[in-house]
Amino acid sequence: MPYASRGAFELYYESTGAGMPALLINGQAMTLATWWRTVPVLAQSFRVLTFDQRDMGRSGHSPWPYTVSQMAADAIAVLDAADVERAHIYGMSLGGMVAQEVALMYPDRVEALVLGATTAGGPGTILARPEPLGFFVRAGAMGSEEAEWAAVPYNYAEETRRLHGDRIAEDIARRVLDTTDALGYIHQVGAAAGHNTVGRLHEIAAPTLVVHGEDDVVIPPSNGRLLAQAIPGAELKVWPGAGHLFMTDEPRADRHIATFLKRHTLSASRRPPRSAPGTSAWSAAS
User: Fold this and answer.
1) For the domain that residue 193 is a member of, what is the CATH number?
2) In what order do the strands lie in the sheet with 235-239?
3) Across residues 207-226, what is the average pLDDT?
4) Is 34 domain-assigned?
């Protein structure tokens, strides 16, 4: 099984498909199983890399808290281990926060950027209502399966809950295969709480697509709109009738993202080669 080394940590990753690489970064307390719907769609055109972030799944666990910036360095370690110099980066929720830091800290490694159901953080964040906010603080103390089912009203849109319960059951059946311990959950909550890219978003140079569900009660869609306004040239796609896990609520979302990435893969193929290839800086980060 492939692992990337990141200091004292081993990060488990998988590679599917061929073509321009696309690295997918999971949300809070989720493993690479999050992407089971997305990978087959993107792998038709790309080499798709997925990985378990630290404290999750088959990756190493940390005894100490850490930051989103450190998680961004983990993502770069995966690219290095997979022998990828430059990739599309797609992050979801907490993974979208990590993706922002990847684009800011390692711009030479990013071809195009997709930010799904995420926020820039900082004092301008539009917070969730008290009920979902309080639930996700408490969820780390629950058993894995209990937490997954209890989160359904927050993760999925009403229409999906009424008409497509089979989709939810399929998601949860995959996610409960890997449990999350309470300490790892707390670490990721703390990393997300400290995230703030507000004053730096104008520095993101990669073509960017911001994707959000209109009915997201975990990270309200106003946060996506603020991201798109702050990142130069960013495109915004808000899906009506979709919640936080918009890829399950709205199957067209994955195809829309694939189209965006294909467009910017074509642009990359027409770009003159760089005179000096970029080098990785992940090992310098703690």
Assistant:
1) 3.40.50.1820
2) 3-6, 9-16, 47-51, 21-25, 87-92, 110-116, 208-213, 235-239
3) 97
4) yes
Q: What is the pLDDT of residue 134?
A: 77
Residue 33 lies in domain: 3-269
Structural domain contains residue 282: no
Specify the pLDDT at position 280: 34
pLDDT band at residue 7, thresholds of 50, 70 and 90?
confident
Q: How far apart are CA 155 and CA 170, in angstroms?
A: 14
Structure tokens at 277: 């290839």
C-alpha closest to that of 79 among 34, 114, 47: 47
175 bridge partner residues = none
- Total structural domains within the chain: 1
Burial class of residue 174 in the structure, from the number of CB atoms within 10 Å of its CB (0-12 exposed, 13-18 middle, 19+ buried): middle
- According to the model, what pLDDT value does residue 222 have? 97
Kindly state the average pLDDT of the residues 27-35. 94
Cα 239 from Cα 165, distance rounded (Å): 19
| Within a domain: 278 | no
Reported as a single tens digit per residue, the pLDDT across 248-262 is: 999 999 999 999 999
255 in a structural domain: yes
